[in-house]
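Predict structure. Chain length: 400.
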Amino acid sequence: MNRLTTPFGSYELTRFPEDPRDRLFAWDAADEYLLRHLDSGTGERGPVDLAGAGQITVLGDRWGALTTALAAYHPAQITDSSLTRSATAANLDRAGIGTSKSTVSLLTTQDVPPERIDVLLVRVPKSLALLEDQLHRVAPHVHAGTVVVGAGMVKEIHTSTLRLFERILGPTKTSLAEKKARLIFCTPGTPGATRPTTPGPWPLTYTVDEDGGSGAGLTVVNHAGIFCADRLDIGTRFLLQNLPTNTDGARVVDLGCGNGVVGTAVQVADPDAEVVFTDESYQAVASAQATYRANVREGRRTAEFLVGDGVSMLSPGSVDLVLNNPPFHSHQATTDATALRMFAQSRKVLRPGGELWVVANRHMGYHTHLRRLFGNSEVVASEPKFVVLRAVKQDRPRAM
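Prediction complete.
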């Protein structure tokens, strides 16, 4: 746990799930820069009167640092990440603030934004598509007097980023860099500024080609922010080419489901399968629901769609098969922590004899982790870049 000191107070903040071994902070220099600006102003921009500002909306807060620091001004947070939402709630509770309607409103990217937004604070996301979609969503709710300030690390802010702000909200400028962070100033009330009146281009839809293995011919729906929006990513394609075919009515989890094409392929091939789609992203689960509806006839078994931390919401020993294409990034940081947590959670929810199938970059070396956790790991398929691994939960519990 680390302490963030801001002009608005000092707070102990953690990421979620909390892990004492995690050396990554719950904030970065961009969060600090934005909070300093809100208190004192930067360059030609004066300070923002938060007390009299009206509705403050924080878009894309990473782990709740901005929302926690500004909680006294009753902001609304909009996030795509259920882990961010949980981290924010925990950080607010630790600060003695809580998340009642009178303090902070926690919204998702699938929720309707506040009706009127007077101050819009934007943490620039890794996904330019997600930024585009969310700016389109909030655009009808800003007005001529709305203060819009974005923040990000220099490596996250590109010309294309500024063009999105300019095109969707209004004229845009940037600040000087401080500690490799930069602010974005956008003025939607500038005379002559026009904002789009039509929705953004999302979601996107495509059909899986004949090289897509079990997914060939499926219609895939991608909301903004989902990896590889207009085609199958090569890891998912390789997994679809090597999916198990003996599900026979099993309970199958598409873990970290993304657009849900893997779980949907299982359901189409085996109408008796009980498929559960899980992801920490609200955009991903919405995509999986749309992909499922586009391909599975009404009257077949209804799938479950869960937003949360992996399979932590499922009962131990309740699953026959877990299919997983784990991420190895957390925002800009490269880490295997998420994958290893997914593997451990999978072992817990699998029945004895149940299987975890993982597709991953060969260099990640996940086979060693699976052997340590399950006592076994088998290569199902391999090619120069990717490998599909299979681990079986043994009848007898392993000593951990």
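Summary: The mean pLDDT is 90.
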